Amino acid sequence: RSSYSCCYFVLPCCFFDFHGKYSRRQSKKTQYREYLDFVAQVGFVCGFRVEEDCLRIPSTKRVCLIGKNRTYPPTECALIDKQITQYINNHQTCAVVTCDRRVGFNHKDHSDGVCKEAGSELPENETDTAGTIWMPGFQPREKVEQIRNCASLPQDFVDDVVLSVANLLLNATPQKSCSNMHGGNMSTWNQGESLSLKEVAEHLNKETLKRLKSEYGGLQTLLKNNHQVFEVLNGRVHIRDWRKEKPSRKTKPEVKRRLSAEAFKTRLCWFFIHHPDGCSLPSESCPYAHGTEELR
């Protein structure tokens, strides 16, 4: 509806209608194929010759739809605009937006959450209003998207949660003994116990949990972000044992080898500072700095 000269490109992903989740109508098609057909139909109703293409991107949702040419001359813009308005009216529901007479709905007539049409055509004196207010109640997302992947949480808060969870795992059971043969000396290193995310959450205070719930992924995301300390596998949290990490292959491309070498010892080793047994690796093997004097 922008202008007659407008073209469009769309890469359908999540299954949504104009106001909510798209409801399936054809069981013989896959959900993805049915949704692609729906989006193509929207373009066709809007007067476009809709073309389909497949992008060369690493995604399962890579079919795009393109509208470059119109199916009608510029003189028929007003007629097509009425057709578009009616199509939108027919596909609106009350699930998200309060029904509004300006888009041709009857306030009193509801059935299964779907607003029934008040008539096949908009009232004459409301056609202009519907032309300017396409989707009453529509709320676009904010221009600046809020980062909610735990990366913007204060570092002090993150450090406190990491230390609390690590101590919880270390003290969950009597100390486990792990053989450490580095340098030829036999020693023990406490790897602690593994606990489910639910068990870990139960030991955190309410304020901490409330703060984490406002982030996408919550506790799990925070722990995965701190992969130096933790491993999260199949919903269970483990303290990472760096002795079990696979050494980097010598066949790595030169660029990747150089990048990994540049990242070596740029951060302090959490285990050297906080773990009761220190780091499980000797200083020369640990990718993290054992003390500030080793920082690069």
Automatic annotation (TrEMBL):
Keywords: Cytoplasm, Metal-binding, Methyltransferase, S-adenosyl-L-methionine, Transferase, tRNA processing, Zinc, Zinc-finger. Its EC number is 2.1.1.211. It comes from Anhinga anhinga. GO terms for biological process: tRNA methylation. The keyword rRNA-binding does not apply. PANTHER family: TRNA (URACIL-O(2)-)-METHYLTRANSFERASE-RELATED. Its main location: cytoplasm. InterPro entries: tRNA_uracil_MeTrfase, Znf_CCCH. The keyword Methyltransferase applies. GO terms for molecular function: tRNA(Ser) (uridine(44)-2'-O-)-methyltransferase activity; zinc ion binding. It is found in: Cytoplasm. A zinc finger (C3H1-type) spans 263-293. Belongs to the TRM44 family. It catalyses: uridine(44) in tRNA(Ser) + S-adenosyl-L-methionine = 2'-O-methyluridine(44) in tRNA(Ser) + S-adenosyl-L-homocysteine + H(+). This is tRNA (uracil-O(2)-)-methyltransferase. Adenosyl-L-methionine (AdoMet)-dependent tRNA (uracil-O(2)-)-methyltransferase. Residues 263-293 form the C3H1-type domain. Transmembrane segments: none annotated. It comes from the Eukaryota. One of its GO terms (cellular component) is cytoplasm.
